[in-house]
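Why do we bother with holo predictions? Because pocket geometry can differ from the apo form. Keep that in mind while you read this record for cytidine-5'-monophosphate.
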Amino acid sequence: MSDDRLIVAMDVGNALDGLKLAERLGDAVSFYKIGLGMLTGGGLALANELKDEHGKRIFLDMKLFDIGATVEAAVRGLASFNHDFLTVHGDPYVVRAAREGAGTSQTQILAVTILTSLDRGDLDNALIKEGKIPDLVQERAGFALEAGAHGVICSPQEAALIRALPEAEGKLIVTPGVRPAGADLGDQKRVMTPAQAIAAGADHVVVGRPVWRAEDPRDAAESILNELSSPQATSPNTTIH
Ligand code: C5P
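The structure, written out:
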């Protein structure tokens, strides 16, 4: 089994393209993130096939948000597949409902703090209280973890702040917004390299385009894995998950 600290975001068009990508990556990659963009393209079937037929770990990035009863029902259904991670928004009542829905499933609930695409102006428009984004992210992460989240999703730049919270002890920090040195940033603005993200306290890094858009995706994944095996990529989180 390869180093599952690397999660490859499968933001390809449909399940068929996803399967082709997984075949090219072979045993180099053991953990995949499947998100909303692929929901209508057979994403759930792909997730189940990768898990059941290929032994891969699965992160379902659904970012659920609704009244508690609806979140609970949605998570109950999704958690029956026993995927590894499922995302919900980090509002404490949403997290509590998700934990209720997950029951005894092995699916771990990860809370989205504040989407990394939002800036202060967006938060003002959403009537979210004043304060700097990293401080709000840290506070929101603390509330979500207290409410029972198994971990949080955040920018690597906020990982150290969250790792410092007592509530974060033994909890997972998963960071998108990761770029190998020299890679095209795309629309990601606040990035760190994979090794930097792990050193800042992340347990897993999510990388999409630098892998699936590469001419040789396996080669791209392997160079990230090499970076992760360097001594710079040592997590301050000593808990074994
Ligand atoms: O291609 P790239 O490496 O930028 O992909 C990052 C993945 O992580 C995408 O699937 C994106 O939707 C997701 N993501 C993100 N920022 C967040 C939450 C999720 O980039 N705050």
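The pocket of cytidine-5'-monophosphate is lined by residues 9, 11, 35, 115-116, 153, 176-177, 186, 188, 206-209 (CB under 6 Å).
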